[in-house]
Design a protein that fits this description.
- It contains 13 helices and 14 strands.
- The termini are far apart.
- α10 runs antiparallel to α11.
- It is an alpha/beta fold.
- Strands 1-2-3-10-7-6-4-5 form an 8-stranded mixed beta sheet, with helices on both faces. It has a two-stranded antiparallel sheet with strand order 8-9.
- 42% of the residues lie in helices and 21% in strands.
- The longest helix is centred in the C-terminal third of the chain and has 19 residues.
């Protein structure tokens, strides 16, 4: 649904696309447009009353956008407290979440306050987890500033921090009150960051949208219209999440395609030097190898997937010196293990995915060795 707000009596002075996502406790809107960050208070007024709030951002994003966001909030009576953390996956810890909570308490935030996550996936996960645990749960607003976060991690209510054993092992389901995607901020991103977002876009196409896969194959890289692309991915993920919000029936688990090995790669690299999207790209290649062995994926379709990842500048092979055995060791702690058995997401063909319970650690080890 496209909403037009041409004057100050309405939330925005420009066009936005509004998508409703249904969560167990409430529904929330995802607003997609360009330039909306400067007028975010208009959207909040109909969702959260003026009062104290925390803006959680990182040392890269905060200097770029926190000032604009805070100015908009103050114009409508909100009282923002900016809290900045280092721009690294290592900020996703219980200790960092606790420190943010202490700063919020020191600034006088209470159960009527809310948290805004301004940044990429790390900030969205961390700020959402803080919102889930502060005063036993307060509202969370997602303002993602990366393509990856806009198309994936900001939707669905998964929040969390990392443990020594692996990624996102400590967390909570805490759906946001609002998600605001200002497509204009993508212009500030380096190409490597844009590419990481396309890892999740390609994943969505592989598991559920063969037409989008064909469009990505045909697209010209310097002529991408991001707004409809983000809308399509938000709608796709929202549809899956609404069927299985807490990952109990298996529908939502399909979104983990490529993530079993991908998370293992991130952990083996100590979350340094390999971005999430890059790890997912490599995980997709490994999942395709397993899919050819266990699910009947044809080699020509596997080749199309690998070629598409390469088209968008994503890695498909690991350095020879990468500690592959550490990848396999960390997978044993993956959240996708149920009663000691892994539920592995495989694709029999592009546009369809299912869960397999007969994939062994030897199958995964062989796929990792091929990277």
């Amino acid at each position: 649904m496209v909403l037009l707000f041409p004057n100050r009596k309405n939330p925005y002075r420009f066009a936005v696309t509004s998508i409703e996502v249904k969560a167990a406790g409430h529904s929330y809107r995802v607003l997609i447009g360009s330039g909306s960050l400067a007028d975010v208070s208009g959207a909040l007024k109909g969702t959260l009353p003026p009062g104290k709030c925390a803006i959680v951002s990182d040392t890269n994003v905060g200097p770029l956008f926190a000032g604009t966001l805070a100015k908009s909030l103050r114009s409508e009576g909100y009282e923002p407290k900016l809290i900045t953390v280092p721009a690294t996956e290592e900020s996703k810890t219980l200790a960092q979440a606790g420190e943010i909570c202490e700063q919020m308490l020191g600034a006088g935030l209470d159960r009527q306050s809310f948290v805004i996550g301004l940044g990429g996936g790390v900030i969205g996960d961390l700020s959402g987890f803080v919102a889930a645990i502060f005063q036993r749960g307060i509202s969370h607003v997602q303002i993602p500033t990366t393509l990856l976060a806009m198309v994936d991690s900001s939707i669905g209510g998964k929040t969390g921090v990392n443990a020594r054993a692996g990624k996102n092992l400590i967390g909570a389901f805490h759906p946001p009150a609002l998600v605001l995607d200002d497509v204009g901020v993508l212009k500030t991103l380096p190409q490597r960051e844009i590419a990481q977002g396309f890892a999740e876009v390609i994943k969505h196409a592989i598991i559920a949208d063969p037409e989008m896969f064909r469009q990505l194959e045909a697209i010209t890289l310097n002529k991408i219209d991001f707004e409809p692309l983000i809308r399509r991915n938000v709608e796709l993920k929202a549809h899956i999440v609404e069927k299985d919000e807490r990952e109990r029936t298996g529908d939502r688990a399909l979104l983990n395609f490529g993530h079993t090995v991908g998370h293992g790669i991130e952990h083996a690299a100590d979350y340094r030097g390999v971005g999430h999207g890059e790890a997912v790209s490599l995980g997709i290649v490994a999942a395709c190898a397993v899919s050819m062995k266990k699910a009947g994926l044809k080699k020509d379709e596997c080749d199309r997937i690998v070629d598409l990842l390469r088209k968008f500048g994503l890695p498909t092979v690991l350095p020879k010196t990468f500690p592959r055995e550490k990848i396999v060791d960390s997978i044993k702690f993956d959240k996708k293990f149920v009663d000691g058995e892994i539920r592995f997401v495989a694709v029999p063909t592009i546009g369809s995915a299912n869960l397999l319970d007969d994939v062994t650690m030897d199958d995964i080890r062989a796929a990792v060795e091929m990277l």
